[in-house]
Write a structure and sequence with these properties.
By secondary structure, the protein is an alpha/beta fold. It contains 15 helices and 13 strands. It has a six-stranded mixed sheet, sandwiched between helices. The chain has a five-stranded mixed sheet with strand order 4-3-2-5-8, with helices on both faces. Helix 10 crosses helix 12. The radius of gyration is 23 Å and the shape is globular. It starts with 20 loop residues before the first helix and ends in a 13-residue tail after the last helix.
Length: about 500
C-alpha cells in the first residue's frame, strides 16, 4: 500500500504560457510517450480478451487465470466468528469478523502490523514466524486466556495471500512468483499453506486455515455481499489484479474434475502479467528500465505500467533523464537524492496533482523538503504535466482489464468493486478510468455508464471471512470440490 497525503480541494489547471521553448519541446515529447489514445486502448483490450481465454485453456498463457475454488457468492445469511489475515505489500493486517444473524450484518476488529523490508528478501522461515507472531499478539490481546482454553474448536481463518498462486484446493496455494518487491528464496513453486501452518502449530494457536485467498477474490465476494450487482473485483494499489465468476464449463484446464458446466467458480486473473510478450503495451524507454532493474525482469509487464509501486519510480527516472541528457532540469543543483531508486512513491505525484496554487508553491515546497531541489516555475510546470501524464496513463490502461472481462463475459451492465490505494486516493484516477471505459466500449454520451467502478468492501478482511464461511457451508452440504482438509468443518 502507498501512503498518500490527505485529499484536498481540487487542483488548479496548469498554465504553459511562461514555459520556454526547450521545456515545451520536452513536454510535447513526454505527451507523445505517455499518452494512450482510444485506438490503442481498444487494441490493448482486444488482445486482453484473447489472453484471458488463453489463460483458462489447458495450454495457459502469461495471465494465469487461477481457479480459486470459491464456488459461488454468499447469500448474506452466513454466520459465525472468523479470523482474517491479510499479507500485502506494505502491511500485515489481522481481523476478527463476526457475521451476524441479520442479512449482510457483520462486526470487525482489526490490527495492522508493519511488514519489515528485510523480510521481503530474507529467509522463508523468518517470514512465517513473523506472521504467526503477529497473529498470536492479536489473539492474546483480544481474547482472555481462559476463553481460548475452553474453546471446543479452532477459529477458522481466511488467509489473504496476495501473490500469484496455483490452487488445487481452497486451503492450498503453490506460489508461482513473488511480486510487489518480495524476493524470498525457497518459496516459489511450493505450497505456502503448510509453511504457514507449521508456524501456527509451533505456537499452539487455536486457529485452523480454512481458505487461502487472493485479495482480489476477497474483494469480489465482499462487494457482492452488500451489492449483488457487483460482478468483478479489482485491486489498483501496490499491484493490480481482478477476479470474476466464471462457469466451470468455460475453464478447459479444470475439465478433468468433471464439475457441472454451469457451476460458478471465482477466477483470480493475476493479470498484472498481461502482455509479458510485449505485443501491444505502449512501453516507453523508462518502462524498459523499470523492468530491467526489477527483481523479475520480463514479468508483470502490465502491472509495472499502472501499479502504485512503479508510478513514482517512472516519474523519478524521467526527471533524472531530463537533468542529465535533455534540457538540464534543475541545472547546477545536486540531484543525489533524486538518483536513489524508488525514493519517490505514487503519493509524491498525487501531491503535485493536487497543488491548488497557480504558482505551484506547494510543489516547490515538496521538492525542497524531499529532494533539496529548487525548481523554477517553468520546471515545476513540466513536473506537474509529467505527473498528470503518468497518472492518466495508469488510469486509462487499468480500464482495459475491466473492459476485457466485460467483453469476454458479455457483461453489458454491472458494478465493479475496486480497492487499493491508487484507486481510492490518487486524484482523478476514477474519472480518468471511467472515461477510458467509455472510449473502449463506445457508450453513448450523456447517459449513465452501464459499467460503474466504485469503491469496494473490505475484501482482505470481510471477504476472507466470508470465503472461510462459504467453505464450511459447502463441506456441510457435501460439496467438497477443491477442499482438501475438512477436519473440524462439520
Amino acid at each position: 500500500m502507498v501512503d498518500f497525503p490527505p485529499r484536498r480541494k481540487p487542483s488548479r489547471k496548469g498554465s504553459m504560457a511562461d514555459v520556454p521553448k526547450d521545456l515545451l519541446d520536452q513536454i510535447k515529447e513526454l505527451e507523445r510517450l505517455f499518452s494512450v489514445d482510444q485506438a490503442k486502448l481498444k487494441e490493448v483490450t482486444e488482445h486482453f480478451v484473447g489472453e484471458l481465454e488463453k489463460g483458462l485453456s489447458v495450454e495457459g498463457g502469461s495471465i494465469p487465470m487461477n481457479p480459486t475454488w470459491v464456488m459461488g457468492y454468499p447469500d448474506g445469511y452466513e454466520t459465525g466468528t472468523f479470523l482474517a489475515l491479510d499479507m500485502g505489500g506494505t502491511n500485515l493486517r489481522v481481523c476478527e469478523i463476526i457475521l451476524g444473524e441479520e442479512k449482510g450484518e457483520f462486526e470487525i476488529i482489526q490490527s495492522k502490523y508493519r511488514m519489515p523490508d528485510e523480510l521481503k528478501s530474507g529467509d522463508s522461515e523468518e517470514l512465517w514466524e513473523y506472521i504467526a507472531d503477529c497473529l498470536q499478539q492479536f489473539i492474546e490481546y483480544h481474547h482472555e486466556v481462559e476463553d481460548l482454553e475452553q474453546m471446543d474448536s479452532k477459529l477458522p481463518l481466511g488467509f489473504t495471500f496476495s501473490f500469484p498462486a496455483t490452487q488445487d484446493f481452497i486451503d492450498h496455494g503453490v506460489l508461482q512468483r513473488w511480486t510487489k518487491g518480495f524476493d524470498i528464496s525457497g518459496v516459489e513453486g511450493k505450497d505456502v499453506a503448510p509453511l504457514f501452518e507449521a508456524a501456527l502449530e509451533k505456537r499452539k494457536l487455536p486457529v485452523r486455515l480454512s481458505a487461502l485467498i487472493n485479495d482480489t477474490t476477497g474483494t469480489l465476494i465482499a462487494s457482492h455481499y452488500t451489492d449483488d450487482t457487483m460482478q468483478i473485483g479489482c485491486i489498483f494499489g501496490t499491484g493490480c489484479n481482478a477476479a470474476y465468476m466464471e462457469n466451470c464449463g468455460s475453464v478447459p484446464k479444470i475439465a478433468h474434475y468433471n464439475l457441472p458446466p454451469d457451476m460458478p467458480i471465482a477466477i483470480n486473473c493475476e493479470y498484472g502479467a498481461f502482455d509479458n510478450e510485449l505485443v501491444v503495451l505502449p512501453r516507453t524507454p523508462f518502462d524498459v528500465i523499470i523492468d530491467n532493474d526489477s527483481p523479475r525482469p520480463g514479468q508483470q509487464a502490465f502491472e509495472k505500467m499502472i501499479a502504485g509501486l512503479y508510478l513514482g519510480e517512472l516519474f523519478r527516472l524521467v526527471l533524472v533523464d531530463l537533468h542529465d541528457n535533455k534540457c538540464g532540469l534543475f541545472e547546477g543543483q545536486d540531484i543525489s537524492k533524486l538518483r536513489k531508486a524508488y525514493s519517490l512513491d505514487a503519493s509524491f505525484l498525487s501531491f503535485i496533482e493536487e497543488d491548488p496554487f497557480e504558482n505551484l508553491s506547494e510543489t516547490a515546497e515538496l521538492f525542497a523538503r524531499e529532494l533539496s531541489l529548487k525548481g523554477s516555475k517553468p520546471e515545476l510546470e513540466l513536473c506537474r504535466r509529467l505527473a498528470e501524464l503518468i497518472g492518466t496513463r495508469a488510469a486509462r490502461l487499468s480500464a482495459c482489464g475491466v473492459a476485457a472481462i466485460c467483453k469476454k463475459k458479455k457483461i453489458e451492465s454491472c458494478h465493479v468493486g475496486a480497492d487499493g490505494s491508487v484507486f481510492n486516493k490518487y486524484p482523478h484516477f476514477k474519472v480518468r478510468g471511467a472515461q477510458a471505459l467509455r472510449e473502449i466500449l463506445d457508450w453513448p454520451k450523456g447517459k449513465r455508464d452501464p459499467v460503474d467502478i466504485r469503491a469496494a468492501e473490505d475484501g482482505s478482511g470481510v471477504g476472507a471471512a466470508l470465503i472461510a464461511a462459504l467453505t464450511i457451508k459447502r463441506v456441510k452440504a457435501g460439496n467438497l470440490a477443491g477442499i482438501r482438509n475438512t477436519e473440524g468443518m462439520t
